[in-house]
Amino acid sequence: MTGGGDALAQLVLRDRDHECEGFGPGRVCVRVVAVARLPTRAGPFRIVAFWNNRDAKEHVALVHGDVVGAADVPVRLHSECLTGDVMGSLRCDCRDQLTEGLAAIQREGRGVLLYLRQEGRGIGLINKIRAYALQEQGLDTVEANLALGFRDDERDYAVAAHMIHGLELRSIRLITNNPEKIRQLTAYRVDVSGRIPHVIPPGEHNRFYLETKARRSGHLIDLAALEPRSEQADPVVVAPAPGTPGGE
Ligand SMILES: Nc1nc2c(ncn2[C@@H]2O[C@H](COP(=O)(O)OP(=O)(O)OP(=O)(O)O)[C@@H](O)[C@H]2O)c(=O)[nH]1
Ligand SMILES: [Zn+2]
């Protein structure tokens, strides 16, 4: 069965009364609370919903193949980006990273994408839009966060680590360019047995953003080696109506 459904369903039963000392400074503890099939454009997944004891954020895992109890499982940690993931914003590379992350897991034949509700690298949607406004005045992404009184990256991966332990992944190959994710997960006792690079070619609007990630935030991205990508290349889904611009 796609997604190792039975083993995942068992986790819901296992976690009914789960309570541990928690992970990280916030002592966050999560429970697997629901599992269902999720056919996607990228292929078949199962979606696993997690409850946590600290806030109302509903984190989920998309699981493909048999992963419970497995080693060297490809794992992508995706941080929520409403503007990119949902609206197709070209200011960042998040939507392409999400699509490519799911595709990579399908190619590998198994894997997990954790969709983490860490909008704006943990500062939230309103503050991310404030940061965008500052970037329009010439600040880069790091400077904008600092000007708002935040660290350049407020994300903590304790919840992700607990989710990985909750799925009983023995070791993971992390799909990322961000060494901080590997550092934090390792500190939370996740066995990171390898790294799979996750580089999206730059487009016109996000080139400076990607350069800033490489230059200032330590991401392992060699932009010079990448061919530029043509943006807005998503095929239209609905054909223009006759009589409208672009229509018959
Ligand atoms: N504060 C802030 N957050 C942003 C900005 N642009 C994108 N984000 C957020 O950045 C997060 C994605 O993180 P990235 O730094 O792109 O990538 P990463 O996940 O750290 O690294 P990889 O694993 O290599 O992809 C999402 O939560 C976005 O909402 C920005 O200009 N300012
Ligand atoms: Zn984004």
UniProtKB/TrEMBL annotation:
Entry EC no(s): 3.5.4.25
GO cellular component: cytosol
Active-site annotation: 153 (proton acceptor), 155 (nucleophile)
Key word Amino-acid biosynthesis present: no
Chain sites annotated for binding Zn(2+): 81, 92, 94
Known pathway: Cofactor biosynthesis; riboflavin biosynthesis; 5-amino-6-(D-ribitylamino)uracil from GTP: step 1/4
One Pfam short name: GTP_cyclohydro2
Organism: Anaeromyxobacter dehalogenans (strain ATCC BAA-258 / DSM 21875 / 2CP-1)
Keyword Metal-binding appears in the UniProt entry: yes
Entry's Gene Ontology molecular function annotations: 3,4-dihydroxy-2-butanone-4-phosphate synthase activity; GTP binding; GTP cyclohydrolase II activity; zinc ion binding
GO biological process: riboflavin biosynthetic process
Name of the protein in question: GTP cyclohydrolase-2
Keywords per UniProt: GTP-binding, Hydrolase, Metal-binding, Nucleotide-binding, Riboflavin biosynthesis, Zinc
Cofactor(s) named in the record: Zn(2+)
Co-factor: note: Binds 1 zinc ion per subunit.
Protein family membership: Belongs to the GTP cyclohydrolase II family. In the N-terminal section; belongs to the DHBP synthase family.
CDD domains per UniProt: GTP_cyclohydro2
Residue span(s) of domain GTP cyclohydrolase II: 33-197
